[in-house]
Design brief:
Chains A, B: Homodimer. 2 copies of one chain form a homodimer. Chain A is of the alpha+beta class and 387 residues long. Chain A has 3 domains: 10-94, Rossmann fold, CATH 3.40.50; 123-185, Dna Ligase, domain 1, CATH 3.30.1490.20; 191-383, ATP-grasp fold, B domain (D-amino Acid Aminotransferase, Chain A, domain 1), CATH 3.30.470.20. Chain A is built from 12 helices and 17 strands. In chain A, strands 9, 10, 11, 12, 13, 14, 15, 16 and 17 form a 9-stranded antiparallel beta sheet that branches. In chain A, strands 3-2-1-4 form a 4-stranded parallel beta sheet, covered by helices on one side. In chain A, strand 9 (191-199) and strand 10 form a beta hairpin. The longest helix of chain A is centred in the middle third of the chain and has 18 residues, at 232-249. Chain A is globular and about 60 Å long. The model of chain A has no long low-confidence stretch (mean pLDDT 95). Chains A and B meet through helix 1, helix 11 and strand 16 of A and helix 1, helix 11 and strand 16 of B.
Chain lengths: 387, 387
């Protein structure tokens, strides 16, 4: 407990933009997020009062960090499962627990468990040797999607494999490098959806409206809330699936379920157990932001209202463009002049091509209008030009 | 400029809840507010990464603080005018400028200037000796309102004086103690209103909707946005008055104009040149919060959209009740269970009777419902009981 405020202390391992925005939400709850960052220029370290430095793979650093925290949670999935188990055995309260988080860390574990639970998987199999991949592709039809079981994000650790020759070469190289692999059919998708739920230790679960995520090159560029034209029964099915998974896996905190919408129904793509890019729209677009909700969940507070704050909400990611050109400060001037209603979130990062440096959110009534405004606003920050 | 982010550095003198919530807004703009606090348990010092310590009346401390800030602004009105002038003469950019801020620091200066500008003052006069007060009361009718020209807030520095005998005694004591005084007629008010505007160095001004502020014992307990049943022409007149004052006084940043609504029209009560309690509703209730707007103004960014985010917004202050009883943490549990849509803002303060320790905001469609929910939510935090 923080004796200055009488409130429990939440620690977050990782100092990126998710910790940065969680700290922002924590302030309203009377909290000051304790952050384990790697460097003073990490997004959260730039803005939080209570920062420690250390590596998230270093058990001793994690142990020191956890001292005095009432609960420890995570900005990313990269803390080794065995470290989380070791600290839990020492009495540290960590959410999500290791047994839940494992399903967001390891795609093979996730696929196996989803299969046991009867949740909608694509066709898939583990790839122990190149022949497994070739056989799967020959049976399912090429191309197929090869994935590293651990460590991938934003399109990294995912390869589209076109034929048997490419499969044999790629799998040989990756397996020789020690990368554990699974392969999935390339799903005939209409579009990608995502749904966030939050679950408390008590077991309360609250679901956000289902959103559409628009991806380019494996990176999410835009989120539309609610998912346009999604039939009510599919929306309810997606929310129910996420609630069931959160409960079955024992998640505490946020669970983001990324989904493919296919002609045959929904298929689970990925799981994340933390605030997620597909939920950034909730900061202004829902009555309770995913960051506040994650804090409420790990603190075992009752969940907040997940209703939409406007009929249409669009979030557009800001990916760093080429360095040079007009400064970020000048870009903000132009953007704010052009779009007084656009809500900007910058993560305190240096611009590098393709790097997520922030996002913008626009609320309104008309999808085409809101989407165009969000795209223009993001373009100002990305390129320093309106379009 | 912050070389890590390429963005200008904003410094705020004072580490209270206004700096705390300004830092929260700064995070989204890619900023990290630099705060000059007095103690490590100041509300903003608990949450901000970039904190210096020093007294706001110490010119040397202010000078050190201002080094490396692109612009300096204020959490309160207590920085001596001569210090602001001295720093400005040394090239520091301070907003609002001393010549503007003086009107929020000194009630006599404010009344004189409002008179020159033709803005609606109550009947008033300076009180240089007790006889001035007695004569004013005899002429205007008792009771009258005696005010310290400087330093009052939340009902402090204001005395309701019932008759000539009390007037003579009180004025004698206060004047002997060195308190400069003015007296004002006791206005026959229907209710109190407030309007916020923000003005940039460029001269852009943006006005928020007019709100009703409900006071108990000189302390604001509730803000209703928009002011219920306010005729459109009065609302426009109030916004125009605030815009004209911001422009005439050369305000940069937020200006809050507190007004009396009387049978004869609007009368100016007080001015504040910073984010203000009467604007806390804007955090969730307007598209741009007053804290973001203040930052945009002092950074000379174009102003954000001031539209309401819902038809009815009610903010209720949380005043510390008697110490003891259930903890703030437990109160939060009960409040969140009872009101999932209530937005809580705690300031990191120890509970003391009557001390503002936070506020809650509720959005909705029906005034009576929203107001009841906000009151219940505030009551949970104040007293640890629902009503």
């Amino acid at each position: 407990m923080d004796t200055r405020t009488g409130l429990p202390v939440v620690g977050m391992v990782g100092g990126g933009q998710l910790a940065r925005m969680t700290h922002q939400a924590a302030i309203a709850l009377g909290q000051s997020l304790r952050v384990l960052a790697q460097a003073p220029d990490d997004g959260a370290a730039l803005v939080a009062a209570d920062v420690q430095y250390g590596d998230h793979t270093d058990l001793a650093a994690l142990r020191t960090f956890a001292k005095g925290c009432d609960v420890v949670t995570f900005d990313h999935e990269h803390v080794p499962t065995e470290h989380i188990r070791a600290l839990a055995a020492e009495g540290v309260k960590l959410f999500p627990p290791a047994d839940a988080l494992l399903h967001a860390q390891d795609k093979q574990v996730m696929r196996e468990r989803l299969g046991e639970l009867g949740a909608p998987n694509p066709a898939w199999r583990p790839v122990a040797e190149p022949a497994d991949l070739v056989a799967f592709g020959d049976a399912q039809g090429w191309p197929v999607v090869l994935k590293a079981a651990r460590g991938g994000y934003d399109g990294r650790g995912v390869w589209l494999v076109d034929d048997a020759a490419q499969a044999a070469e790629l799998a040989t190289t990756l397996l020789a490098g020690g990368t554990r692999l699974i392969v999935e059919e390339r799903v005939a998708l209409r579009r990608e959806l995502a749904v966030q739920v939050a679950r408390s230790p008590f077991g309360q679960v609250a679901a956000y409206p289902v959103v559409e995520t628009v991806q380019v090159g494996g990176i999410c560029v835009e989120v539309l809330a609610p998912a346009p034209g999604l039939p009510e029964e599919l929306a309810v099915a997606a929310q129910q699936l996420a609630i069931d998974l959160a409960t079955a896996l024992g998640v505490v905190g946020l669970l983001a379920v990324e989904l493919f919408e296919t002609p045959a129904g929904l298929v689970v793509n990925e799981l994340a157990m933390r605030p997620h890019n597909s939920g950034h729209w909730t900061i202004e677009g829902a009555r309770t932001s995913q960051f506040e909700q994650h804090l409420r969940a790990v603190l075992d507070y009752p969940m907040g209202d997940t209703s939409l704050a406007a009929p249409v909400v669009v979030m557009a990611n800001v990916l760093g463009g080429q360095p040079g050109g007009i400064s970020i400060d000048e870009r903000l001037h132009h953007l704010f002049a052009a779009e007084p209603g656009a809500k900007v979130h910058l993560y305190g990062k240096q611009v590098r091509p393709g790097r997520k440096i922030g996002h913008v959110t626009v609320l309104g009534d008309d999808l085409a209008d809101v989407r165009a405004r969000a795209a223009r606003a993001a373009h100002w920050l990305t390129e320093g030009t309106p379009a």
